[in-house]
């Protein structure tokens, strides 16, 4: 209760309205959005464009487009000059998100990094440096994102996939 009382009084970053790039990114989605995706994204954008810190849970069955909603929110964050992170519970899922995001942002000036067991030591070193300097806009990772050596220049949004798979220690670190 005390944590939420402090958060309710804390002023957060007010993201700018959608840009042309946001519209192009969304139009590049190869499927038709569901009504739930459209309404969820509108609510998320409204949260992001206010000065209140967003704390939102997006629930839905497998295959109903939660990931696309998260991708669009992360892209909006990046368009406003902030960094975004996607925390995934498994290495395989992190790899899938990384590959999908890299494909989705192709053609936009967005750099994506990966922090998981599948990343080589050189890739990890480059991603860590890029996060600190701001050269990496978006990072996808497993619990590795919660390591002490991970530092962001200006993190604007953290998306946690499968929240229930992270323990109390992980949530305190977040």
Q: What is the compact description of this entry?
A:
The chain contains 7 helices and 4 strands. Helices cover 44% and strands 11% of the residues. It is α/β, with parallel strands linked by helices.
Care to describe what's here?
It is a single chain. Strands 2-3-1-4 form a four-stranded parallel sheet, with helices on both faces. α6 links the parallel β2 (112-115) and β3 (138-141). It starts with a helix and ends with a helix. The chain has helices at residues 2-9, 20-27, 35-48, 66-79, 91-104, 121-133, 168-173, and strands spanning 83-87, 112-115, 138-141, 155-160. α2 (20-27) packs antiparallel against α4 and α3 packs parallel to α4 (66-79). It is an alpha/beta fold and 174 residues long. It is built from seven helices and four strands. The mean pLDDT is 90.
What distinguishing features does this structure have?
four-stranded parallel beta sheet; alpha/beta; 4 strands; globular; 44% helix; 174 residues; 7 helices
